[in-house]
């Protein structure tokens, strides 16, 4: 907590000292939610990641991950903020930071539901059409 009693969020791109137990509560509504251990593996294997940590509780409260060839293409494949922490600008800050890390890469893709297109449009993204496999 800050001196004013407000939650202070620490944004970082390394996994130093991040343990599985700091990763509870994610993948809300997923058919097959990842375990905290698998979540940590996803974060470790991503080419680029940004985590949001609550400095008071020492828990991860949001994250975003991307795969990239480092030259031409990047794919932002998961962005999530814990329900209790949504609507406070954390998702926006995670997007801002990962796009900063991907600066210079001309093609950046992600898939989302139509309802979220307005959110992503804030970052200069525009609608596209995609195809997926979901093999649970
Ligand atoms: C989408 C998400 C990451 C946004 O994070 P956040 O920290 O709440 O975002 P911010 O506080 O920075 O911005 C909130 C804005 O996003 C909009 N938004 C958030 N979730 C939304 C949703 N499901 N549909 C439409 N708009 C949404 C809010 O209306 C708000 O807009 P406003 O500022 O005009 O009121 C978060 O809601 C989340 O984790 N959702 C569940 C997982 C998910 O859908 N991830 C994206 C997969 S493509």
Briefly say what this structure is:
By secondary structure, the chain is α+β, with helices and mostly antiparallel strands.
What is the averaged pLDDT score? 96
Bound molecules: coenzyme A
Number of discrete helical segments:
3
Structure classification: alpha+beta
Instruction: Calculate the terminal CA-CA distance, rounded to whole Å.
Output: 40 Å
Given as residue ranges, the uncertain stretches (5+ residues, pLDDT < 50) are: none
Order of helices and strands: EHEEEHEH
Strand residue content = 15-25%
Helix content range: 10-25%
Number of strands: 5
Largest sheet: 5 strands, mixed
Overall geometry comes to globular
Protein described:
Helix content is 20%, strand content 24%. A five-stranded mixed β-sheet has the order 1-2-3-4-5, sandwiched between helices. The protein has helices spanning 36-45, 90-101, 117-121, and strands at 9-12, 48-54, 59-68, 73-81, 107-109. It is of the alpha+beta class and 136 residues long. The mean pLDDT is 96. It contains three helices and five strands. Strand 2 (48-54) and strand 3 form a beta hairpin. It is globular and about 45 Å long. The protein binds coenzyme A (COA). Coenzyme A binds next to strand 4 and helix 2. Coenzyme A (COA) binds at residues 79-81, 86-92, 112, 115-116, 119.
How is the topology of this model organized?
Blueprint: E1 9-12, H1 36-45, E2 48-54, E3 59-68, E4 73-81, H2 90-101, E5 107-109, H3 117-121
Parallel strand pairs: 4-5
Antiparallel strand pairs: 1-2, 2-3, 3-4
């Amino acid at each position: 907590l800050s001196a004013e009693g407000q939650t202070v969020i620490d944004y970082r791109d390394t996994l130093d000292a991040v343990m599985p137990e700091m990763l509870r509560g994610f993948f809300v509504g997923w058919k097959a939610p990842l375990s905290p251990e698998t979540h940590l593996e996803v974060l470790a294997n991503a080419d680029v990641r940004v985590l949001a940590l609550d400095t008071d509780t020492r828990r991860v409260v949001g994250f975003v991950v991307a795969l990239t060839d480092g030259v031409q293409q990047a794919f932002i494949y998961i962005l999530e903020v814990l329900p209790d922490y949504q609507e406070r600008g954390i998702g926006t800050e995670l997007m801002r930071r990962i796009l900063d890390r991907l600066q210079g890469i001309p093609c950046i893709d992600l898939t989302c539901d139509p309802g979220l297109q307005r959110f992503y449009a804030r970052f200069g993204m525009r609608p596209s059409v995609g195809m997926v496999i979901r093999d649970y």
